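Re: the pair you flagged

First of the two:
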Amino acid sequence: MNPDRLAELEEQRRFLLDSIRDIEREHEFGDVDDDDFQALRDGYVARAAAVMREIDDGRSSLPPKPASPWWKRAAIVGGTLVAAVGLGVFVANSAGQRLPGQGLTGGQAVDEIAVQLSEGRRLMNSGTDPESAAASRAAFERVLELEPGNAEAATYSAYLLVLEGQQAGDQAKVREGVAGLQAAAQLDSTYGDPHCLLAVAGGNFLDPPDEALVTTEGERCLALDPPQQMVPMIEGLIARITGVTPTTAVGDDVDTLLAKANEAQTAGEYAEALGYYQRVLQLDPGNLAAKAYSGYLVALNGDASSSPDQVTQGLELMQAVIDRNPEYADAHCLLALANHYFVEEPDAELTTEAGEQCLQLDAPADIIPFVQAVLDAVAAGN
């Protein structure tokens, strides 16, 4: 499909989804009567569903874009370093594998379920700001109004409630979300997402962590064939909570895992990369590469998700590597880039010091031009 046509369809999609929301508000305030509302809304929903199908077909026909350096791409990988669970990446690779509207037969309800599921996923992957999260949850809640047994909508509506509670420091809300995930897990015994997210919630967001929940649900998640990048993350989460290191698998050595992590981050699979780095640190707790690159990925995610605390956490991990081995060039390079690009008010002195150390040491050749560009920008006062 012509990229211009695809852009036009994206604009139509936005217009139609906005129109659905507008007509719902007008109906709520009594500006549109019931008959007109139903006719207009059904028309918008049908058109939106058709446009979204055309967009999906068009995207599949586009040639792949040239890859940009992985360390400059935006990332939404969510969670914490020790669990390395990527909400955005997980959703992008697992949600949507189910058929929306199962149990319904044709008509506007099925079209609207497809529209609202797609919108919920898009908003959830667009960022972690409260407005996007609330709108995403509203879309999933609308699906549940149309189809109360929809496992995907029930799962992600509940998980967004967990995240909302965690961000607000409200354990009661976190537990309400966990209860919702447990209910969602009962809707379809073959659907692994609620089990995976229950393990994540139990280990990362419940205070104190629930070891039994992490172990039970993590094992169920793994048994239901989750997306491949989830496997090392869930295994690592179970290991962290229980203190039992997973059995080493064939080929599960540090060099192989580091190579897989590099391949994953180059491909933009940041959550998968973090999972591999975590496994490396289980086998070799002092591994400098795993710590430094984990730190950068955490900072990258913090920048993309507007989380200064997470950016700081990533910077501290990189600095800890430098403190342990000042001769490790990669840590200096990554610290210079992260401080310059991800900190709201960058420390020019830190960027300069780390960047110069990077260039003086045996830095990776592909990073050197970017570090030099950062140093030039700082020298120019930018």
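Second of the two:
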Amino acid sequence: MSTSVEQFDERARLKAERIGRDVVHRGELLRHPVYTRVLHWLVAIAFVLSLLSGFALYSPWLFRFLTPIFGGGPMTRFLHPWFGLFFEIFFLFQFLNWITPMLWTDVDSRWLKRIKQYTTNEDKIEPEEVGFFNGGQKLYFWAIVLSGFLFLLTGLLMWFGHVVPRWLVAVSYVVHDLAALLMLAGFIIHIYEGTAAMPGTFRAMTNGTVTEKWAWTHHPAWFRAVTSRDPRRAYERENHRQAERERALASWEREHDAQENPVNERVP
């Protein structure tokens, strides 16, 4: 990547950190700083706009429902490539931001081998070697990289279809649609994993923090790296505290019942 782009990325990062503010409370860890969160939502907004405008042009049935959002058919056709271009630009900086932690390792290959246990929640916590991103998150990232490259290549061929062979434009339509379907499938999984499947994840992209429990449950190696504490011991300690709370609650309920029973027995 060119030095000028990297310098711009660094200036944008510093400016975002000056404008925004990360507030980390007790029992929390900073997961994503302001710059990362801003990029994430810019990429997401640009993708959704590209997706909706693209579907409006793709399907006659969706055309009548979606094109009014963008001001009609001609305006939708005009805006769609610009939405895509904004997506490419924003994701370029997200790529620079995440390229290092997204590099594939042997840990990720081992994670993929136990994907069934992950999807069925057989394990209470992830293996202790899982770092900032797990193998599934990295797969999604590189799927976006691939799709983004195909979007850009085929999009330019379609945008300037009058200067390239017609057969190449026709192939570009097919590849463009397949890349969109790949992105859509990953996007749906991403939303599910970030909300219902892993409660506490969504806040990492709103206020930037996660609970320590979330960290040692889903990314133990990252938890160890930022806290210098053993995630397994943290898990066992939490189980002990939960058992203590349950015993205390059961004891209180027995005492409460014992106090109420004599009163109930005197009621005619």
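The chain is about 75% helix and 0% strand.

-B.
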